[in-house]
Structure formats: structure tokens, C-alpha cells
Amino acid sequence: QLDCHPFPHCIIRNFLDSETFVENLQTELLGLNFNEKSNDLYKFKQSDDLKKRKEPHITGLRAALFGRFRSWLGEVLGVELEPTVDISCARYEYTDVLLCHDDELEGRRVAFILYLVPPWQISDGGTLDLYSIDSNFQPQSIVKSLIPSLNTLVLFEVSPVSFHQVSEVLTEDKCRLSLSGWFHGPSLERPPRHIEAPVSRSPHLPRDETVLLEWVNPVYLDISYQEQIQEEFEDSSEIQLKDFLKEEKFREVSEALRVAQIQWTKKGPPNKRCYDVASLDTLPQCVGECWELLRSESFFLLLSNFTGLQLHYLCPADDEDEDKEEDEDPSTPVCCGELRRWSHGGYTLLHDAEAAQAEYALDLVLPFSKWQSEFGGYTCYVANEEDEELLTVYPENNSLALVYRDKETLKFVKHVNHRSSSDSGNSSTCRALYDFSFVYYE
Known about the structure:
It holds the Pfam family Ofd1_CTDD. Belongs to the TPA1 family. Its cofactor is L-ascorbate. InterPro entries: Oxoglu/Fe-dep_dioxygenase_dom, Oxoglutarate/Fe-dep_Oase_C, Pro_4_hyd_alph, TPA1/OFD1_N, uS12_prolyl_hydroxylase. By secondary structure, this protein is of the alpha+beta class. The chain folds into 2 domains: 2-184, Jelly Rolls, CATH 2.60.120; 210-441, Sandwich (Jelly Rolls), CATH 2.60.120. Helices cover 24% and strands 29% of the residues. The chain is built from 10 helices and 23 strands. Strands 1, 2, 3, 4, 5, 6, 7, 8, 9, 10, 11 and 12 form a 12-stranded antiparallel β-sheet that branches. Strands 13, 14, 15, 16, 17, 18, 21 and 23 form an 8-stranded antiparallel β-sheet that branches. Strand 8 (128-133) and strand 9 form a beta hairpin. Helix 4 (223-236) packs across helix 7. The protein starts with a strand and ends with a strand.
């Protein structure tokens, strides 16, 4: 079965002609050691590369795929495919996922997946979802979902538009076992990467300290306590301030977020992010006032006192900052922010443009929902071009999280998994996490 929509792909059912061979292959694969794989893009278990495995059925399949089948495929495509062997086994179980990406890497020409699954239904999740693209060659929406089926081989051409995902596995009692890899050859030409317009930044709003007295827990307005917070923050570059808002204000905003008719917009594209953003002109009064608090002049000064960063002209400069100011024009502190709603399927991903534009910044997150870490939705900080996780910030009701990051530090929000909705008792309504997310720049 051949199809060019949304990009060229092929489905070959009953790929292997011996049921016994398929069963023995499954047995050999399930006996392998699997490594937990988890980052911004995926969560599943994967074997090591199978190019040197000696098991008879793995060896037989590998020889067939990268021998006669590779030659036939090259003839069909009119492309010289290389003999490079690139194959591994993946196990996807409950809440495992591989989010939207295009598979592009130098030398990859055709991707393949051979499914070795029990009887599978769309309600089990784990579908191979194919995306359409917009005018900027960015993924837009899922237009085709392929349900895994035993002994079915799926092939697709790796290209700048081959955006796809493995949707989250929703069944708790089945394993989505597959063999996958790539046939290598000359890569297709790639159009220039689309660069997103930068997010607009604004200076503080002219609001005096009255707004702090109305909203902020009085303990955080005590100067001596602010000095303690700054000392701790300067040691670790991060802090969580529990019970940050006054209890009555926090309850009022929480309730308004839950019941108000706020207009939400899905934010993409899916190869970079997927979550809902509130339209500011639809915020109820108390939520709008909380938004203004986080943008107010007095709050900029409070953040300066918490962190030692120069986010207000009244913040005393240290010696390094004074030296800097002699060389540079003093800049006006600015911020950008949004009110976000996270529900099942929400995430953000690391991407090249973000790494290229990384700069010194103070991140603020203020959550308004009871949340469990096993749901996902937490923020991970990682070193650029390294797998090392530097810090994980878990959402906590009314706990103000502050993190200062440098140019070599990136962040992502971990995929919100099915547990976030299945934990809601008998209700089919998905649990949601609301948060204010701001970034402040000196």
C-alpha cells in the first residue's frame, strides 16, 4: 500500500511469510537488554544496535533487510542505498511516547518500522501519526494515524517534511514491540530553516508597592528574609518560595481559572511545543490583576531583592555589574510572559533556534493546580548539546519557582502523560495545570 499523503510512505502487511519465524523473532527480541530512554522528545525502552547480534532470527532478518530488500528498495526509489546497518528494537509501554520530529540526520534516506505487537486497537495509543505541513514547512496537524499490526512493515522517505510521532501508549497491559532503523543514502536537499519571530518583551508596569501588600505573603516582604533568600539563590541559582501569594488571593485566582470563560489558544508548532495560552483580554479581573502584579515595577524590585539581579534601578550593583556598565549602555530590564494551561498531551521541546538565541535570563513559574510529578508537566533544565539534566522544577501549588539560566542552559516541559487524566476518578475530564510563566531580562 503506497501513499504520498502527507509524505511518501508504504505499508507492507505480512512482511515475513513464516508465522513461526515471527514468533521466534519476538522471543529473541524480548530476551534482549533494554535501556530506558527519556528526554524532551521521548520516553521508551530501546535495545543496543542490533548489527552484531548473533541470535539466528535477528541475524536472518537483518541479512534480508539490508541485503536483497535494500537492493530492491534502492531500485524502486532510483537511489543508491548504502549497506550501512542501522537497526534496533524498541519497547513502548504505558505512557511511553515519541513526540513530533522529522527523523532528518545526515545519511538517513528511508525509515522503517516492523511491528511485532499483540492484537492492537486505536484506543491502545501507540499509533504512528503523520503530520501535514504549513507554508513554512512546519508540522501543522495529524492527518493520518497508522495502527500497529503484527508483521507489518512501514517505510517512509526521510525528508524536511516527514514529521511524525509515536502517540502515547494508553494500554496498561500490552507492549508495543518493534524493530526500526534507517536505510542510508544521499540526503534530500533541505530548505532554509524557518526562524520564528521573537517574543515581544516589555518593561515593567508603573505600579507601586501597594500591589505587593495586596497580593504577596507578608513573610516575603520582610527585608531580612529577602536577604536570606538572595543568599540561598546566589548559591544555587534557583529557589522555590512556598505559599507565595496570600491564601485568599491564591484561592480566588485558582477558582477563576477553573470556572471562568477564558479563551485558550493551542500553541505550536508540534515539533517545538504543544500547550494552551490564555488570551489576555478574556481574563477575569482577579487573574488580570495577578498578571499585572508579575509585570509591576514593585515586583521587578522584589525579584531584584530575591536574586541580586539588576531588574530595577534601585537594586545596588555589585562590582562586576559596575565594570560592565562602564563598557555598555545600561539596558532597561524587560520581561515576557504568558498564562498557560497544561493538559494531557502538552509539552515543549528543545530546538536549534532556541539554543542559538539562548541568553542570560530569570525564569519564573507560578502554578495554580494540585499536581503530581508522575503526570509530567515539570520543567527540566539541561546543558546545551549534553544529555545531562541540571535541574528539575516540579509544579507545586502557590510555590513561586525562580531559576537563573546562562547561555549554555536550555529548558523543556516534560510531556503530560495519560496518568494526568486517568487519575481523575471516573471523570473523563482531563486534569489541567495552570501556571503563569515569565522570563525577566536585566
